[in-house]
């Protein structure tokens, strides 16, 4: 709206000057110069939009993603909620002289629900939520990453003030890209400058701030992170988000099948037993693939057959109609026999 008003006002001024006999060409050239400069800055990525949770209602409340929506991960959820209570009980924390919690680091395999837990944390603490990926900060131009970090923290505070909230959560996915060990990139110092700016912003978070900012980072490779990020006073709490156990897998399956028609004979507990090593993302994909298989076959319900076939598809990929030739089967058999012989030689009785 503001842009339209300014454009209309500028056009009116140009028409008025032209009617009074002034030459508007210098103003047009100046406006064109600023327009080109704006496009140039956008091309360099200095003006970056970050994901925010959709606002709903007149008061700008955040769309509800709660911990109840996350199946399994009971220990990780409990640890995260305990850390978030420092942000909720401000008065008690202040009375005890506890320094503000600046960062929480979540680590674990891909697809285990780290992003979903960060969104649930925003709902739990009644905070605004901004999300960015570590790869969004790094460019070939020097200084762009540091500028984006400053913009992200500034926007979090402005958004909290606009929505009349006292807290903001910034979620940084793929933190190992942004916060990798300094000194290993010899081509340019953009990585180091960006990380330095993040450290400066986190050091600037104080208890007396009008808006409390909490940084939640997620990574699959904690070993790649710079030591300065992991020291006390920055990422104060670490939450390990592992692959779900059988009970966790069952809860995840119950959540994802809640709005899907299941046949009477379907036993989700059996499916949970057969999906050892599956992440939450794998289980969601499994249920979706089973629904697609039922759709292909013209069924109204999802049965055991579709779920079992979906397990194989998630693990092995799409089933191929082509049958391998005799020579191909022989080559595979020889290859696997070699594996078995080496295993038996190194560790006797390992091949049962």
What topology emerges from the helices and strands here?
Blueprint lengths: L1 H18 L5 H20 L6 E2 L2 E2 L4 E2 L11 H15 L1 H6 L7 E5 L6 H11 L3 E6 L10 H19 L4 E7 L1 H4 L11 H14 L8 E8 L7 H4 L4 E6 L5 H11 L11 H6 L6 H17 L7 H13 L9 H21 L6
Parallel strand pairs: 4-7, 4-8, 5-6, 6-7
Antiparallel strand pairs: 1-5, 2-3
Helix content: 40-55%
Strand order of the largest sheet: 1-5-6-7-4-8
How many domains would you count in the coordinates? 3
Give the SSE order as H and E letters. Answer: HHEEEHHEHEHEHHEHEHHHHH
Low-confidence stretches: 44-48, 50-61
The major pleated sheet works out as: 6 strands, mixed
- Structural shape: extended
CATH class of the largest domain: Alpha Beta
How would you name the CATH homologous superfamily of the largest domain? P-loop containing nucleotide triphosphate hydrolases
Distance between the termini: 73 Å
What does the oligomeric state look like here?
A: single chain
Mean pLDDT over all positions: 81
Say what the CATH topology of the largest domain is: Rossmann fold
CATH architecture of the largest domain: 3-Layer(aba) Sandwich
The counted number of beta strands is 8
Binned strand content = 5-15%
Assign the structural class, choosing from mainly alpha, mainly beta, alpha/beta, alpha+beta, or little secondary structure.
alpha/beta
Radius of gyration: 27 Å
What's the number of helices? Answer: 14
